[in-house]
Design brief:
By secondary structure, the chain is mainly β. It is built from one helix and eleven strands; from the N terminus they run βββββββββαββ. A hairpin with a 4-residue loop joins β5 and β6.
Length: 128
């Protein structure tokens, strides 16, 4: 059973930084895609940044140059470094994984419904 546990959310002023972590366990797949997604009330969940088992990354345009996704493969931890945060980044952030993955990582960014496993989420609030 794949388990994803997020941490690191919080409240920050615009221009500040946060780092999210996602501890993954319970999987043995060689092919996977794992990433960060966010959702605000009344809107669909959107992809923020994803990374494939080959290290390929993909970002939504609104966070390019500000957010960086990375992973510690040995520890099975996924990170999202968020810099220059904006009020519009306020959302519940979820760690999601497709295991095994059958498509390029960018597809999961565009179609979060293809993700099979989700964490419980961590709230990020950016005040102006």
């Amino acid at each position: 059973q794949v388990q994803l546990v997020e941490s690191g959310g919080g409240s920050v002023q615009a221009g500040g930084s946060l780092r999210l972590s996602c501890a993954a366990s319970g999987y043995t797949y060689n092919r996977y895609c794992i990433g960060w997604f966010r959702q605000v009330p009344g809107k669909e969940r959107e992809g923020v940044a994803v990374i494939g088992n080959d290290g390929t990354t993909s970002y939504v345009d609104s966070v390019k140059g500000r957010f960086t996704i990375s992973q510690d493969v040995a520890k099975n931890i996924l990170y999202l470094q968020m810099n220059s945060l904006l009020p519009e980044d306020t959302a519940m952030y979820y760690c999601g994984a497709a295991m095994p993955s059958t498509s390029p990582a960018r597809r999961y960014l565009a179609y979060p419904r293809a993700i099979g496993y989700w964490g419980q989420g961590t709230q990020v609030t950016v005040s102006s």
